[in-house]
Amino acid sequence: MRGVSPQTSYLADRIDAVLPQTQCRRCGYEGCRPYAEAIAAGAPINRCPPGADIVVAKLAAITGRPAIALDAECGTPGPLLVARIDEAACIGCTLCIDACPVDAIVGAAKRMHTVLAALCTGCELCVAPCPVDCITMVASGRAWGVEDARTAGERYRVRNGRIAAKAAEASIKKTPEDAERAKRQAVVAAALARARSRRSAASMRPK
């Protein structure tokens, strides 16, 4: 964290260590680490549906704040789901690959993609960008554990580091491939924004 005290940075580290590292963005931030930094700066501790009440309690203990009910506007807890691609319908657009925060989808342009279920965090960020709706979320049949969180957090950091390095390289020399990737990423960002808007609207409908 830049421009913050060592104490705040240390607090963010402790908070990040108990978050589930699903990188789902339901909290309203771009991932678990950004949310951890926001909490350290004063943001609410009850915006993590995957972590549910257990994580809220841990965050309360770390921050010294009272444990409060999970914010329903962020979603509700549930069993771990993983993405599944209908490989027969996949057109190889790579938009889901660009959207996955932990590199759990493999494939290449104009080639079939597939999800590595053991690495999928269930974030659902790949669903909205798919232009042919060939991605569904299915029950994983297992619980999300500490080792899953550790692995996902590390893959998230590695991916972000790779993206940052490519951005730095692109700022020096841009190629047609870089421009096309930037265009695809813009499409992903727009699709995610629409999905968040739909989710927010759905949560506000009378039940």
What would you say this structure looks like, in words?
The protein is mostly helical and 207 residues long. Helix content is 45%, strand content 7%. It is built from six helices and four strands. The protein has helices spanning 6-18, 32-40, 52-63, 95-99, 146-172, 176-203; strands spanning 81-85, 105-106, 114-115, 135-139. The strands form two sheets. It has a two-stranded antiparallel ribbon with strand order 1-4. Strand 2 and strand 3 (114-115) form a beta hairpin. It is globular.
Total domain count: 2
Indicate the structural class: mainly alpha
Proportion of residues in helical segments: 40-55%
Note the beta-strand portion.
5-15%
* Number of beta strands: 4
Total helical segments:
6
Average pLDDT confidence is 90
Query: Which CATH class of the largest domain is shown?
Result: Alpha Beta
- Termini distance? 41 Å
**Rg (C-alpha, Å):** 18 Å
Give the second-level CATH assignment, the architecture of the largest domain.
2-Layer Sandwich
- The succession of helices and strands, N to C, reads HHHEHEEEHH
Described by strand count, sense and barrel closure, the largest sheet is: 2 strands, antiparallel
The unreliable regions are none
- Might you state the CATH topology name of the largest domain? Alpha-Beta Plaits
What is the subunit arrangement here?
single chain
Strand order of the largest sheet: 1-4
Outline type: globular
